[in-house]
Specification:
two-stranded antiparallel sheet; mainly alpha; 11 helices; 2 strands
């Protein structure tokens, strides 16, 4: 393996890892405010990828494609909360407390079948978003790096930074943490608890949509890719710790880099080794690498 190969694998791993981070942050924010997860998070990403492909093949400019993806995914996030989560809140303890697993997974299956009806089962690649051709390369220090990967890394980091600032610097972010700490007390302080819950599911869906917009040129897109991304997002969230948004970034990049190198050495089972490593890690440190062992104050 040459130094050029190492650098290219690092960049590829960081690009894919940044997408895993965005997907995992969608799981994080929903879990933070509601103690629930969207088991269809990866399928929301898949829908975003297919909407991107469809609009780009129609000749729509990339910025407008992103706007279209965000509108579609925002509506899906609203619908998920309205029809798969809210009825369970009204039913209370009658559902057993974990019915949301079935409703969100059921929403994922519905999306898979709808996409199959529209686009078919065959795998597809999205056209390049940020460059004229898929193989457009820029040379840095004698090492060739794909322009598409550099742009995806830059956009993903901007979104991650904006997400962090939103959580800790805005009124809405503070409302999310207030609801996470104590919904009843937050309501007494004037926080719209139901509106905040809707907001977190819409945000989670928007993050999945951005991930789908970015991932198309990197991997083959098919209607059943969502489960793989959901599992990997869970793995990233487990590495970073579900209570640490910065840890999610580190966990996503680490997972992506390990995956890139393992696929280089074993293309048949390269995706398996990072997941095994996560399982071993969780056996010794269930809270992840970047989470504290203190009890959850929520």
């Amino acid at each position: 393996m040459t130094l050029s190969n190492v650098f290219q694998l690092l960049m590829s791993g960081i690009a894919v890892g940044a997408i895993y981070t965005l997907t995992a942050k969608g799981l994080f924010i929903a879990h933070l405010a509601t103690h629930r997860l969207n088991f269809g998070q990866g399928d929301f990403l898949m829908v975003g990828a297919y909407v991107t492909i469809g609009l780009m093949l129609l000749g729509v400019p990339a910025p407008l494609v992103l706007v279209g993806v965000l509108i579609v995914l925002g509506l899906l996030g609203w619908g998920l909360e309205r029809f798969a989560i809210r009825p369970l809140d009204r039913a209370g303890d009658q559902t057993g407390g974990y019915a949301w697993v079935l409703t969100t997974a059921g929403a994922a299956l519905i999306l898979q079948n709808v996409v199959e009806l529209i686009w078919g089962k065959a795998a597809q690649y999205a056209p390049p978003i940020f460059s004229a051709t898929r193989n457009n390369v820029v040379h840095i220090g004698g090492v060739g790096i794909f322009v598409e990967e550099l742009a995806i890394i830059a956009v993903a980091f901007v979104v991650v930074t904006a997400f962090y600032l939103f959580l800790f610097r805005t009124r809405w972010g503070k409302a999310i943490y207030a609801v996470a700490f104590n919904p009843e007390a937050a309501a007494l302080l004037g926080v719209n608890v139901r509106g905040t819950v809707v907001l977190v599911f819409v945000l989670a869906s928007l993050l999945a949509g951005i991930s789908g917009f970015l991932v198309g040129p990197l991997v083959s897109v098919n209607p059943h890719m969502g489960l793989v991304f959901t599992i990997k997002a869970f793995a990233v969230a487990s590495i970073g710790g579900f209570s640490n948004p910065v840890g999610l970034l580190a966990g996503g990049l680490l997972f992506g880099i390990v995956e890139a190198f393992s696929n280089y050495f074993d293309s048949s089972f390269g995706d398996l080794y990072p997941l095994i490593a996560v399982l071993i890690l969780l056996a010794f440190r269930p809270t992840g690498l970047f989470s504290t062992r203190a009890a959850d104050v929520r």
